[in-house]
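[step 3/7] fold_predict: job queued, chain A
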Amino acid sequence: MLDSPETPLKALIRNRRPGHSLDAPFYVSPEIFAADMELIFGRHWIYVGVEPDVPEPGDAMTVDIGRYSVIVVRDDDMGIQAFHNVCRHRGARILHDEKTTVGNIVCRYHAWTYDLSGALIHAEHMGADFDRTCHGLKRVHVRSLQGLIFLCLAEEPPEDFDEMAREMGPYIAPHDIANTKIAFESDIIEQGNWKLAMENNRECYHCAGNHPELTVPLFAYGFGFAPDEMDEQDRAQAERYACLVRDSHADWEGSGLPSREIERLDSRITGFRTERLPLDGAGEAHTLDTKRASRKLLGQFTRANHGALSFWTQPNSWHHFMSDHIVTFCVMPVDAGTTRVRTKWLVHKDAVEGVDYDLANLTEVWSATNAQDSALVGYAQQGARSPAYEPGRYSPHTEFLVEKFCRWYVGRMAAHLGR
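[step 4/7] structure written:
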């Protein structure tokens, strides 16, 4: 499909109508899904987890990205290494558990043994002319952005990761991911294409009618609004919100917390966006009472009412950083109509469940929101399968960031296909 001069995919990309949702095949076609896995998930930086997933030397996790399985391991020098989960002997999968601890990496089949740097250190009965140094595990590019782990399966990864890290590092660093732990994680299998899961995240047009828990700590005017539909009272409230954002940014940045928006969603190969925004009520956390969920604050925070820092990356993640906890989200495609969304809640590594935080209170808002979003994505997938489906127009006031996601996606596909 990818080799002909004018494939159906190339035609769909060329004819994509800006400001509208994608044509149905982008959501339902197995062939386009295969292209997504090759050209998007196979060639870009993919968020897969956090350094607390592998906190100590020998701690390892396996990550599935399409047909690939990758080992992420903490080495003896506390660095993060990543390797294809394929033995260099006869190709058996080596690690089978999602999380484990190893002294060395040992294949169960014939006991070929690799150290934590990926070097082959033991292979019996291979003959005197066998050179172990030529048979180490195949490396996968891995980078940590202040504790957020990204992988790239391509031989040559996009070169702009350092630019993202330079801009985002000061925003994330105060939350000190290295000194957090995973309090809870959950997976939801959504019955929809991965792009629908991402599009749903990139707007809050749907929030007021579908997310009663999430909208408690959020300001309504943070969802976007149509100025030409507002009466005088609405305009006054919108202006008060704008003033609150400006004043909060000045306050937080005066305290050493970068807060102003950086938006690179469709202008970079490694697209991203960030901004710290105030929260409603007590202004402390994504909880039903809007107060912090953990008594132990992160990093050097001395007060909890610093709002929430959002960080989005293309193609597959979003994150919320608060003074007391962090929530991260990783989207992984399963097939054309199925997507896994993994959520992790991080608290200070010394926080004690039942003493410093209540797990139900910590997870309640986003557990409910994830379930609601899963249903909505399923509805969208059902609609995309219908012969009656046609691309619909995005709201320029509340869905402009969805358009940026689609523009990034179509642009990256076109670049790789040589439009």
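[step 5/7] annotate
The mean pLDDT is 95.
Residues 359-385 form the longest helix (27 residues).
exit 0
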